[in-house]
Write a structure and sequence with these properties.
It is built from one helix and 17 strands. With about 190 residues, the protein is mostly beta strands.
């Protein structure tokens, strides 16, 4: 706090009045953010009434108010905004075209694939929107299911259905002299 000496006088009596003037200063460290900047970079202190406006780094989305104001109470009128991209696009039993990316920014496209033995269900390609969300829900990699029609002879037919891939492998091991295999998939 700083004090201001205010001198007042009248004809009969000379008086001095001390007035305490509270100058509220906020440190700039409260304004530091990642993935963006603000328009008051050179300032170290922010007096009452000052404002700060934030801008995102390319590819990031501002979440919150772009401008905050210093109140007479010595606090800002809102939280410092955040800058975000999309959350990492996880997929179990598969991967995506940007596995090595640390940040998924606005406009970034991700294409999914599934591990061997799994089928992709949902959108194969999605992108990060201006709102920091993906254009579609992440797809799923589901295990291929087979319904065993006949197992134990030299010919076997499998169709998509209720049996698991492990059951199919077990059946195939029982057919060491299998000459041909027909697999019908229902889409």
């Amino acid at each position: 706090m700083e004090s201001l000496l205010e001198k007042t006088s009248d004809t009969s009596n000379l008086q001095y009045t001390f007035v305490m003037l509270a100058i509220l200063l906020l440190e700039s460290t409260t304004l530091l953010i990642g993935n963006g900047t603000h328009d008051q970079k050179g300032l170290e202190d922010f007096p009452y009434g000052s404002s700060v406006t934030y801008l995102c780094d390319p590819g990031y989305i501002l979440i919150g108010s772009a401008t905050i104001h210093c109140l007479s109470s010595g606090v800002w009128d809102g939280p410092v905004p955040k800058f975000a991209g999309c959350p990492p696009p996880f997929i179990q039993n598969g991967g995506h075209s940007s596995q090595q990316a640390a940040v998924f920014t606005r406009g970034m496209v991700v294409t999914y694939t599934c591990d061997s033995g799994y089928n992709l269900t949902g959108e194969k390609t999605i992108y990060c929107t201006d709102l920091g969300t993906w254009s579609f829900p992440a797809p799923r990699c589901e295990g291929m299911l087979f319904r065993i029609v006949h197992c134990g002879s030299r010919n076997a037919i499998y169709t998509m259905g209720k049996s698991s891939l492990e059951e199919l492998k077990t059946c195939l091991r029982q057919l060491p002299k299998l000459r041909s295999l027909q697999i019908f998939q229902n889409y």
